[in-house]
## 1
Amino acid sequence: MKASMTPRQGILAALNHQEVDRIPTDLGGRRNTTICTGPCKKLKTCLGVNRPTVELNETYEWPEVEEAVLGRLAVDTRAVFAKPPTRDRTQWLDARTFVGDWGTTWHRPENQPQYHMIAHPLAESTIEDLDSGYVPAAVHNVEDDVPPEDVWAMLDAGATFHP
């Protein structure tokens, strides 16, 4: 083990199941490793970061976690964002309930920071329905060994939801 690894060295070592000098951390690199906007503002106040919080996605309360915060917490990763979609497909039902991509309905209870899934378009599906073909999801990771026909099936399935 090196006495002091760079963040890159530590992440690569951890991914290769090698010994690291400390466990690599991530905050805000992805939606599932981020912090909601309200808690982010409180964290920034505690850390003395006095700049407005930029929201990357208002619907999911997904803020941009600033370098000042990441540096103070010694976070090893940094987010890289692709160009956002050209049109917002969110359909708001009321102030705290919306239908998002893929037809899933989300609701945020009063005084809670997170949205909860309350309805899904496949909720009434049977095993036979699911066995009959590709099941769309909001996120799919395409690995190196995924056959091209599976990628095309994913794209075709997505087109049925958003032509």
## 2
Amino acid sequence: MRLNSNNLNWYKIALLEEQFVKEAGLQENILSVILSLLMSGVSVSEAAQKTKTSVQTVQKIKDKIPAKTPSKPAPTNTNHKDFNPHGIVVHHSASGFKTTFEDVLRWHKERGWPNVGYHYLIFPDGSIKAGTPITQKGTHIKGHNKEYIGICLIGNEEFTPKQKQSLQTLVDKLGEGFEISSIRRHHEECPGKGINVGMVEQTFMAHLKQKELQNKPQVAKR
């Protein structure tokens, strides 16, 4: 199943009412990441590892995703109905590796923003946390928030191998769900010299091409 903002939002709203989600103490942002990963084809074990959630909980979430999009239309947010990203912008937090999700949330709320402005934060251990829901435009690139998904690497200039691997995996999976045509830096100094965004984009484009070849109908030999 291809990821899109409507079915992701529908499943998230429905699953938030499930008892097992409440018992697991899953926050809405973590549930969004798990759904995004699962609906993009990531395995249960990998999604559990990326989000630091038990395999049992992630499996239950996967079991709740139907094979087809529900016929009932998903609720829409009229404030963000025009969010249709065609690119991804990579940022860094310009802070130390010990920076927490709560730190970034506090910084952004001090600016008057309702949530973390980025859609995803990637931490030094490779874990991913969601900020602004993927169904909504973020607040991370002035004048172009309607056009780009925002991903922020926690750190300043240098990043861990696990962060780089998680970034590539996340970008590749988002590209399978959205019509992403470019991966770009925020600006010359962000995210710094510790990550080659151009190489991330090249790998992403190769990944998309491989997927297209795999999905191309095979012509029967006579």
